[in-house]
Amino acid sequence: METALFSPSSLFADSDGNSTDEEFTDSSHQDFVERKHQFPGMELLVREFYFHELNANLLWPGTFAFAEWLVEHRSWLEGRRTLELGSGTGALAIFLHKSFKLDITTSDYDDKAIEENIAHNCQANGISPALPHLKHTWGDSFPISNPHWDLIIASDILLYVKQYPNLIKTLTFLLRAYTPEVADSEPRDCQQHDLVSALPRPAFLMSWRRRIGKEDELLFFSGCGEAGLEVNHLGSRVYCIKPKERRDE
């Protein structure tokens, strides 16, 4: 299988597209800065890169909006085995684990510095040992053949326009190859009008607040549809993505 390696310049739309690479700076070092960030009901100390070539450097504002939404829908998370894609600093996973005792695994590009920084942030916020972490480059063969996570989450990962096909490939595998460790209850749809029902198993919850163009959004959603995935908007720029029912394919 072709390795889905990429450089910073390959993450974004072309120069005439709707997305930009304004977050990247010309720097060769990976010094850190520690900042206190206020999450719902708690303050976390998060070490961030001054610069990281894969843009895992900062805690983006959309993380806080997604955290607030998840708090409002706490019942949807209870008892779920969760994988976060594009964990970056690990702050959202740390918050969810500390708030709800959520069984959550962090994941990001196969990069030692990212993994070590997430472990550092876990320790700095009283989580020892660190949360389990999975190094995975979108589009590559997944390191676990029978993934058992029934909930996948991600915040602000649609900035990487040229990686949409690889992201969809990984996401499709995780949703289609899901293997429950124990018998799950009968899944129920996550329609916008049914906010009290549980999410289906498996499901992908995605939120983003970063500026991307409508054409880029359509590109991602169309790619999901072509891969046999169903997209439902839950409001507040939060989306639930799940495998289509076989009768719909």
CATH-derived architecture: 3-Layer(aba) Sandwich
Q: Tell me the CATH superfamily.
A: Vaccinia Virus protein VP39
Taking all Cα atoms into account, the compactness measure Rg is 17 Å
Q: How large is the share of residues in beta strands?
A: 15-25%
Shape type: globular
SSE topology string = EEHEHEHEEHEHEE
Count of extended strands? 9
Number of continuous helical runs: 5
As residue ranges, the low-confidence spans are 1-29, 185-189, 191-197
Major sheet description: 7 strands, mixed
In which order are the strands of the major sheet placed? Answer: 5-4-3-6-7-9-8
Mean pLDDT: 82
Number of domain units: 1
Proportion of residues in helical segments: 10-25%
Output the CATH class name: Alpha Beta
Distance between the termini: 26 Å
What structural class is derived from the secondary structure elements?
Answer: alpha/beta
Q: Tell me the CATH topology.
A: Rossmann fold
